[in-house]
Amino acid sequence: QVYFVLAALSCVSAFFGPAQQVTIRAHVPAPGLMSANALMQMAFMGMRVVGPATAGAIAASFGPRTCYAIDVVSFVVSAALIGSVAIRRPPSVQAPAASSSNRIHAIWRDLVQGVNFIFHHAAILFVVMAMAAGLFTIGCFGPLIAIFVRDTLNGSARLFGFVSAMVGVGLLIGTQVIRKIAVRFTDDVLVLSGLAGIGAGVFLLGAVPHRVATLIATVAIGFAFAAIMVPAQTLLQRETPHEMIGRVSSTNISVAFLAQVIGLVLSGILADAFGVRMVFILCAGLAMALAAAGRMFLRAR
Question: N or C, which terminus of the chain has less Cβ within 10 Å?
């Protein structure tokens, strides 16, 4: 029953990402997209930092059912607020495709259209691959950090909490900094820098098994991930036609989370074969290689 509820929650949550991209694109002028995406990331990661601590305090005082009840109320209130937002679609320059009686076929057709658009747009293809690479690295890094803190650093649960929170802190700082420097650098440069930054942070994590170095590395990873996510989302919204943004966003999310799932699966296998620190170093090498390949790809374009 728990597995079914979690699977259903994940399926329904998947609708939110593309709808959010369409809404931001419809209501925010192009010059403000970077700031809007930065604020969205700040709000998201701020809740990821504050939420677990708040939930733990509520669960300890009133029990888990109270947490679920508050969660239900928060979703209902959020849905009511979102429902008040009107989305006015501009007229499409393309003739609408014939409707399909087979909904699975219609979903598949939308996915194919999104993939075709991505593969024929070099900048968007690059940022999709960069987001996938970043989430793959996070997928490898996430499950192993607890083992790293326990076995390599001989740390406590409190240290693990601090290390985990530092990723969120780095993201919060990164979104603010990226919003300020976006006027000086292109989206491509910021994304490349983010990939290289993730590589540097994960390399420091594996190469220097020290508590202070671990805290610095996790802040750097969060900061660098913000340098990928914020400009990548902005570029997708700016370069994608309005009638295609839902399909392209959903395809991008599918590719990114598939990469994260692969990272989650491979992390345990690679850790058993090579050790946790070596997995971090391998992930760092992959991120650096992708940053170098991305630079060559964009220069060749």
Answer: N
Contact 69, 185 (CB under 8 A): no
Measure the N-to-C terminal CA separation of the chain; round to a whole number of Å.
50
pLDDT one-digit tens code per residue, 148-181? 988 888 888 778 878 877 888 888 888 888 888 8
Does residue 49 register a pLDDT over 80? Answer: no
* Cα four-point dihedral sign 51, 57, 61, 64: positive
**Distance (Å, rounded) from C-alpha 20 to C-alpha 26?**
10
Q: Which two tokens stand for residue 119?
A: 């593969």
Domain parsing of the chain, residue ranges: 2-56+110-300
Q: Topology of 2-56+110-300 in CATH?
A: Growth Hormone; Chain: A; (1.20.1250)
For 134, residues 6+ apart whose C-beta sits below 8 A from its C-beta are 194, 195, 198, 224, 225, 228, 229, 287
Q: What is the pTM of this model?
A: 0.74
Q: How far apart are CA 131 and CA 208, in angstroms?
A: 26
Helices in the chain by DSSP H: which ranges?
A: 2-13, 16-27, 33-62, 64-83, 103-119, 122-147, 157-181, 187-207, 211-239, 245-274, 276-300
Instruction: Tell me the Ramachandran region of residue 121: left when phi exceeds 0, alpha when psi lies from -120 to 50, beta otherwise.
Output: beta
Token pair of 249 as six digits? 């966003």
